[in-house]
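Box 3.1 A note on notation
Throughout this textbook, protein chains are presented in two layers. The first layer is the amino acid sequence; the second is a token string describing backbone geometry. Keep the layers aligned when reading.
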Amino acid sequence: MNAIFEKNVSALFKVDKPLSKAMSQLESMGLNAPLRFVKTDDGNLFDAIHKELMYKDLAREIDEKKKFFDENYPKHPALFLFGFGNGKLINYLLQNPKHKRIIVFESELDTIFWALHEFEWSKDLRKERLIPFYVPKLNPAQFEALFNIKDIYTALKIYNFTSECEFYDKYYKNTIEEINQKLMETVRFAFIRRGNDPKDSLIGMEHTLKHLPKMLSHPSCKELANKRKGLDKNAIIVSTGPSLTKQLPLLKEYADKATIFCADSAYAILHKHGIKPDYVLSLERVPDTAELFNNDFGEFDKDIDFIFVSFTHPKTIEYMEKNNRKYMIAFRPVLFPISLKLPDFGYLGIFHSVANMNFELAVVLGFENIILIGQDLAYSNEGDSHSKDYMYAPLGEKKFQKNKALLPEITAYGKKGKVKTTPVWILFKQALETQISGAHLKFKTATYNCTEGGAFIEGAIEKPFKEVCERLLTQKVQKPFAPLSSLDNKEVQSLLQETKKRLEESLNKSQLYLAEVKKELLYLSQILPADYDFEKLDFKALQQAKKRLLKLHAKFEKSVIFTEIADVSFFQNNCDLVKLDCVVCKNKHEENELLVRWVSTMANWFADVGNYLYTQDELIKRYIKEW
């Protein structure tokens, strides 16, 4: 075996075992390997299908691409390419230390194979500086993992995607467009997941602080997992899409042979049809969602477990207690709840919809088969957004009629045509596809999309609901499930006081840091006033100010109570700074202009985030006094 190839494949094995094994298999086949591309003596590649060379003019095309990257992306930390080509361009780009991550998508194993024989990339592969993806084996979980890498997610505002050479543009145009679309969707998904409104985060934080004493006095997530994991193999997740209505009779027939997870929006619908869910989950923090529980179903609610995230609106808990329902509150896996160091009470709700939350819980509880119904994620042909019995269904119909012409279209269930959807539903679908892929890879969980309508959901097995029920739901499930226990009052008070002490210590640390920031901003207002004259600015002083701001920025996360409020702003600012760092200056004047932009951007951010942190800290002070 070629020594370079052996080192590369060994390094690749640590980060992408399937691709590494595919490379080793090709090597073991020797001359019998089914290679489409044959390497020529001058380093070109001959395509046996189209009977042509990959590069018509090898030296010219490679040099032009080098020049293109040197002129357009010389300082970009993350580069996205389609095609390995002969590997020379990738090898050239790896010589630039500014490129911290180079992500390459390739549809043919051959080109990767030849490049790994030619260039010693073992260190870059092992450290995931060079990240190859074999396109036929791509899955949503890989896209999700990719944009969790800091060098990549902080470069979202300067996203770029380029083909390696003209050959790929000619023969892989559709594939390039599809991957670019998926990458763009993932970029949007990453921005939305991070959030863009600190005020929204502040509401969630306030609800968490308010609910904490009640959360601690009710069953924990740990208790739920310990008592209920593995009790049943089959879960049915009931969502409220237009297709739900036709599935209700069959759901009622098989309700005692599966565990039913119900979205808050479907709760009243199931009651109307006499179908008792086992779990009812709710994720939203808005008052409209709370109103879904403003009802008294009496005996129907017995043995149902209602599960809410800590962000839920206070009215939700009020309605629970008014009608003596069993409920528990769970932390979402976000910064502020995690900082409270109460892991037994988390974590649920990593994504944005209650269907995602239901799926998450079903995986935690060890279900082998997860059956989706009512998961349309699209409008019906009649323009319905939800099941007819849903409380807010008329609002969805009005939105459809108003925005019909502007709505995006996606592949329909069964890959038969297109359906109208919304950007938010696309976000939910992407998250669900990531969950389905991850659950299958990690636990071999099978997910069945039995909606029989709506959108195509990648990774889910499309089957008629009746067929899946007849095949999987053959035995009754022993219900009600084992009751869940809660902490006694002494334990609750102990945890509350420990949490209070930690928050008080963090508040003191935060106030010292913010005082330091305030002092620096006051100095900046003198050397860079709002009405500054560019020619009279002291650029040496600004350069020193930049160094101090960088030091303050570097210790930001560890110096304040770093919550979702701070994270939203911190993330956006980091993206802005990366974008500024990629600007190429041609002379000293442009360098000074960039310096002013950089210092102004950072100063404005510190001023804005300081105001939010002050509001946050005052909120914490108010609630911990009540504990």
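The two ends are 68 Å apart (CA to CA). The mean pLDDT is 93.
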